Structure formats: structure tokens, C-alpha cells
Amino acid sequence: MTTSLSISTSNENQTPLHLVNVEDLRELNQAKAQVEKSHARFREIIESVSDIYFIHDLAGHFTYLAPQVTKVLSYPIESLLGHSLEEITHPDHLAPIETMIKQLIETRIPHDNIEMRVRHANGNWVWLSVSHSVMVDETDTIIGIQGFARNINDRKIAEQNLQARTEHLEQTLQELQRTQTQMIQSEKMSSLGQLVAGIAHEINNPVNFIHGNLTYSDQYSQDLIRIITAYQAEFPEPSAALQEMIDDIDVDYLMMDLPKLVNSMKVGADRIREIVLSLRNFSRLDEAEFKVANLHSGIDSTLMILQHRLKAKDAQPEIVMNLDYGDIPKVECYAGQLNQVFMNIIANAIDALEESFTNGHVPNPEITIQTLKQDDRVIISIMDNGLGIAPEQLSRLFDPFYTTKPVGQGTGMGLSISYQIVVDRHSGTLDCISAIGSGTKFVITLPIKH
Question: What tens-digit pLDDT sequence spans the chain (450 residues)?
């Protein structure tokens, strides 16, 4: 309702008076009161929630902050108003937040649950989960950014602690798996070593007996041949019965072949003795402790054990062994464990060459073993000219239970255990260099002394 009152008069001097209109402003006052009441209610709601309501301009300077900012970050509100968001944002989040605000202004699509760290008044970093949206005026022009920030610091700390515990448990589990595998493998190698050493010992006694008696057998056969030769010279005309016996026995052939027979038996006995020595060297039961050892002897004994796999079979040709031994000193090591490393790597090389030949890629398989001394270390390289290893397999080659062989043909533990023996037990390095079509090269580096 509006009421108007108009007054028009003159004074004695005929000076005109002003016309006065009086309007009822009750509706306007009521509207203002309602707006103030709404603002108060909004402010009451904003200040009652635990989240921090904020407004900043398009340049990032705060124009409003709810009182909760003091509870969460311990800043007085006045100390932040007019200051930039960048001043309290962690450096790692500056670029993502800048990109997010740019996208927000361009698309006007709100961004929710943005996790970021801001600086507490005491200098520590506090995790907040922040939601942003644009503010517009009556002309739909963006005039600022508003949002809510929720304190998630306790949750993030709990997540980080949980992640740390999870990683620790995973690491512990891997160590337990490695230890279990190593214990099982060590037990197997110990049992194998005892078995090999026992067999070598049992074979060694009769072989030494045979080898020792062959010397006398050779001497006795030579003496008998000399006697027969002397008899033939003294009695050139034997009786008919004796001549028949001589022809039946073929004494001339016997005299010619007997030395060859004894000599071949001696060569065979020598070969058996070499095999027995290789078995004993490979088992190394007498060298279970850390001591000085000849690595060439260990490699040779390993090759002796694997000799049957190097020979030609079916259509596959012999795997040629190229030994390029340098002048290296004896090395302080666990000799038996290093023999296990040589066995694993050389056996893998043979497997790779057999597979490559079967697939028609390597018609002339070769393995090259090279040793050399470099400063205070010894380097052993074992190379094959097989098909090679793919890059994605190369990065996991020493992982436990990972194998490039078909299912049922490999446990995936040989190279993992070899890595532990070389790196953990001997403070050395074990590297693999390979590419498809270029073969594979394993490089073992060992300190000469510890």
C-alpha cells in the first residue's frame, strides 16, 4: 500500500514551498529484513558445519573465509583475506590446482573432492578435500570461485600408515618366500652334494684300484710279449700241436693288440677319475665355508657335469664350448654356491640354444665363457648365440618364480637364487645383456677379497 501527501503553499514573500510526497516504505523494509534474515541464516549454516566455506576472486585471492579455517589451520581469518591461495598451497599441487581453476572457469562444471595439501599455521602440511564452483552475478558473468574444504588429514595419515604397513608386509612376505626358497634349494643342493660326494667316493675307490693295477697289467703284458718273442726266436719251428695253438690264438695279433687294449683301459680309468674329481669339486662339501677357490676349476667341473647335454643328438649338432680363460687369481668365495650359479646359467644357455635350434634360428650353437681380472674384481662372462630375450622379459629375469620357459619346464628360481648368491652372499653383481636376435650374455662380477 502506498500513501501520497502533496503540500503546495507560499510564504509572505510569495516564495514557493517544495512539494513533498510521502510513500509507505513498509514493504521495502520488510524485504530488506527478509534478506538480512536469510543472510544471517546462511551465515549460521555456513559457520555451523565442519567444512570450511571460502570465496576467492579469479586471481585466487580470498574474499571470504568461514571461521572454521581458524579451527582447522589456526590462521586468523584477517591474516588470509586478500592473500593468494598459492601462498598456503603445497608446491606439488600448484600446477594441478591452477589447471583445475582454468577448466572450471572455461566449462563452469564444478570440481569435487580435489585432494590437496595446505600449510598449517605451525608450518606442517594438512590434507584437505576441496570442492569448487563458480559464482556469477545477475548478468551471468563469473565474479569468483566458491567452495568447501574438508579436513581429511587424519584419513590420509591412516591411509599412508596402512600403505606403509602393507608395503612392509609385502616386503616381509617376499623375504620369507626368498628365504624359504633358498632354504629348500640349499637343502636340495646339500642333499645333492652329499649324494654326489658319496657316489664319487664309492666310485673313486674301485677306480683307483683298477687304475693302479693297470700299470702292472701293462708291465706284465709287455713281459709276456717279450717272452713269446724270445721263444719264437729260440724255437722257430714249433711242433704241429703248438703251431695249431698259435694259429688258433693268433699270437701275432694278440701281441699287437694287447698293449692297445691295456692303454685304452688306462685312458678310460683316467676319464672316470676326472669325472669323479669333477663331481667332488662340484659338490664342494669340504669347502662349505668362505675360502679361497679357483673359479676355473669350478667352471670346468660344471662343464664336465653338463657334458652330455653339449653333445650332438638327433638332428641337433654339438654345442661348441669356447673357453677364453684369463689370468685371474683365486677368489674368496663360497665355491659350492658359485658352482650352482655356473650350473644355472650354463644350463639356461643350453636350454635357449636347444629351443633356438628347434625353431630353426641357430644352426651352429655356441657358448663362450670368458674370464678376466679388472682392478680388484674378477669378471666372468657366459654368452650364447641363441635367439635372445625380449625387453619385457629381461626386466623381470631375476624375479622369484618368473620363467621364460614353457609351463612345466622351469621353476623360475634358478636365476633368482643365482642373483642372491652373487649379490647378497658375495657382494658382487649379476647382469644380463640381451636383445632379440643377438643372443644372451650374463656377466658375473666378484670381488677378489672381502
Answer: 444 444 444 455 555 544 444 455 666 676 677 767 766 666 766 666 788 999 999 988 999 998 899 989 999 999 999 999 889 999 999 999 999 999 999 999 999 889 999 999 999 999 999 999 999 998 999 999 999 999 999 999 999 899 999 998 988 887 787 777 666 666 666 566 666 666 776 777 788 888 788 888 888 888 888 888 888 888 888 888 888 888 888 888 888 888 888 888 887 887 787 777 766 666 654 445 678 989 998 898 888 888 888 888 877 889 999 999 999 999 999 888 888 889 889 988 998 898 888 777 777 899 999 999 999 999 999 999 988 888 888 877 877 666 665 544 555 567 888 888 899 889 999 999 988 888 899 999 999 998
Domain that holds residue 232: 165-283
Residue 307 belongs to some domain of the structure: yes
Other residues' Cβ atoms within 10 Å of the Cβ of residue 356 = 19
**Are 55 and 84 within one domain?**
yes
CA–chain centroid gap for 22, Å, is 89
Determine, yes or no, domain membership for 17: no
Which residues are within 8 A (CB) of 321 and not within 5 positions of it... i.e. 6 or more apart?
Answer: 303, 310, 366, 367, 369
Asked whether residue 198 falls in the same domain as residue 225, the answer is: yes
Q: Check if the beta carbon of residue 385 is closer than 8 Å to that of residue 365.
A: yes
**CATH code of residue 297:** 3.30.565.10
133 plus 192 within the same structural domain: no
Distance of CA 373 to the CA centre of its chain: 28
Contact 402, 356 (CB under 8 A): no
